[in-house]
Fold this protein.
Amino acid sequence: IDLKKPEGKQIIKELTKVSDVVLENFRPGTTRKLGLSYDVLSKINPRVIYAAVSGFGHSGPYSERPAYDMIAQALGGIMSITGQPGGEPTRVGSSIGDIIAGMFGAIGIISAVYERVFTGKGQMVDVAMLDGQVAVLENAIARYAINGEVPGPIGSRHPSITPFGGFKTKDSWIIIACGNQAIWERFCKVVGREDLLEVEEFETNEKRTKNYEKIKPILGEIIIQKTTEEWLKIFESNSVPSSAINTVDKLFNDPQVKARKMIIQAEQPGMGKIYVAGNPIKLSTLTEEVVTDPAPKIGEHTDEILQSFLNYDDAKINELKKQRVIF
């Protein structure tokens, strides 16, 4: 729909009358200039949920700036705590700026729809990519607020739990997570270094974390003596949380990933069968994995929507196409 044309704006307004949710991700100010802001659409349908997902939200001095995933990761602080110490700025490997904003947007919409059950009224849901990144900084905010420490990148290790991170093995790498004192004690026993339990500098998690540079080489010398697979068998049989670092190709044959149907096949016109991630939300009433329809082409369902929801006939739709109002 060409939103700059009066006929296009009218279509949006008519759709708003019969819609539960209007979702847009324009830069703030755009829909206001188009005459399609929440203030306008909520008068047409007071029950409508108007969700706006943008880079910086609809308030504040940065609100009308353009943004991409990496901009949100950088400004939101995530990049400052990602990567190796002393290394160049590193983005998270997936587009979490986009993904998290989408997740919070969905949660916001569901919350607004639920509130409407009681109030009978819609509302605006304003979600910013920047806000999403700040929200997932986890303990980095608390660490700075409490002791003035500015968190930085620390690789795979945990800022307040030790040992908790990646260690080089004889043939690759392994992740070991001693999340509490009992696990640490089991770890020391199964690697044959119970003597470490008697070292005062390592007797508590707080001390181990404080003396990380001392304990790191000791643990490194232990772990490099066996292969990743050998260590995994030892740790699994002794309830020490650990994992290999899977590359994407290995996910295809990982028994747990397969059991959870997290990589599935879908049919995409022009491409045939492709592999996509499965649904991570498993519902007890949905016993079989549902393969969704392929991603639609731009405008693929325009005719169907206008016919089904607005009762437009073929003549009207063809005229709108001729005028380039719809595509």
User: Anything to note?
Assistant: DSSP finds 15 helices and eight strands in the chain.
